[in-house]
Amino acid sequence: DAGITQSPRHKVTETGTPVTLRCHQTENHRYMYWYRQDPGHGLRLIHYSYGVKDTDKGEVSDGYSVSRSKTEDFLLTLESATSSQTSVYFCAISGRVMNTEAFFGQGTRLTVV
Amino acid sequence: EDQVTQSPEALRLQEGESSSLNCSYTVSGLRGLFWYRQDPGKGPEFLFTLYSAGEEKEKERLKATLTKKESFLHITAPKPEDSATYLCAVQENSNSGYALNFGKGTSLLVTP
Mutate which of B45, B46, B47, B48 to disrupt the A interface (most A C-beta within 10 Å)? Predict the structure, then answer.
């Protein structure tokens, strides 16, 4: 799994509560990404980071924020969870100049009730 | 409008029955096209990167090819363990820090 750990792996939370998902890498890759995967939509980019404290929005960033205080950790926060944010969340990393393929974590299944 | 379209959505093959999966894309500047395999409950697993038209990559029973508008993933004499969802993704020049734009995938089932 290319040294990527996501936590928690499963979470059930109530509407309106904040939730933070963590991605930890041991590969020292520069770029980190958060995607969500939903039936009928495929994988969609939420936010990405191109270095410590450097982040930017992806396609579906509304309702989410991210932080990266260390190279190895990338946090995704749902500020006030809604049922539409029920999904499987994947963290990915990439970083090599010549081969920019991304490697994915095992995912976090989040259910908002 | 989707930038990456995969077809078919689902494919059922008998063991040994070769076939191809299609990925068509519409991006202005292609940096790379990627194929991933995803098993249920797991994250996508990287298979191939293709960078230019005419390029081909092979791994066991899989062969990926690229033209200026589409990519094919050819599966030769598949086995049941090849059953998975195959995802295609494109990476554009100078966007989103090398982020990938994914298609919706092709779900492959290989029966004995």
Answer: B46
